[in-house]
Amino acid sequence: MKVLFLNGPNLNLLGTREPHLYGHSKLADIEAKVRAKAKELHIEVDFRQSNLEGELVNWIQEAKPLFDAIVLNAAAYTHTSIALRDAITAVAIPTIEIHLSNIHSREEFRHKSIIAPVCQGQICGFGENSYILGLIASVYVKESIKKA
Ligand code: DQA
Fold first, then answer.
1. H or E segment at 5?
2. Which numbered atom of ligand 1 lies nearest the CA of 21?
3. Of the residues 21, 30, 123, 139, which has the fewest C-beta atoms closer than 10 A?
């Protein structure tokens, strides 16, 4: 099983960016934790970050047929990007939306996720563990597809 982790804008600044909201871990620390858990679960992981919407769209398009699932922290594009939503719909790879913070307990403009309706589900508010939960969710999604 292969899972593609995609990270959107400003997540390259984790560690120094608003640590009261996003924690003190750098994205590379989170990647290392994801890789350790993935090894335990015998899952192959690719982990990428971009500040560019089009690059994220390209990566989603290219994911088929290479990956079984996408775990996506689209960051601010969550709330704005019809292009990301359309890419997820177009490739039809099960996608799990994740966020470090609980977007529903923050500013009103963060309550709406444009991508949520085309994702399998949403995990938010568990800090860096949202990434681990996203990985585990991708296993369940793959198993439920196999059974169907
Ligand atoms: C975020 C939440 C978004 O609203 C915000 O724009 C981010 C990070 C999170 O992981 O909590 O950049 O996706």
1. strand 2-7
2. 11
3. 21
Q: Provide the whole-model pTM.
A: 0.97
Domains in the chain: boundaries: 2-79+101-112+122-147
Residue 101 near ligand 1, beta carbon < 6 Å: yes
Cα–Cα distance measured from residue 145 to residue 27, given in angstroms and rounded to the nearest whole number: 30
User: CB of 72 within 8 A of CB of 78?
Assistant: no
Separate counts of helices (H) and strands (E) for the chain? 5, 5
pLDDT, residue 124, reads: 98
Residue (of 32, 27, 37, 29) closest to 1 by Cα position: 37
Return the CATH fold of 2-79+101-112+122-147.
Rossmann fold (3.40.50)
Model confidence band, residue 146 (pLDDT cutoffs 50, 70, 90):
confident
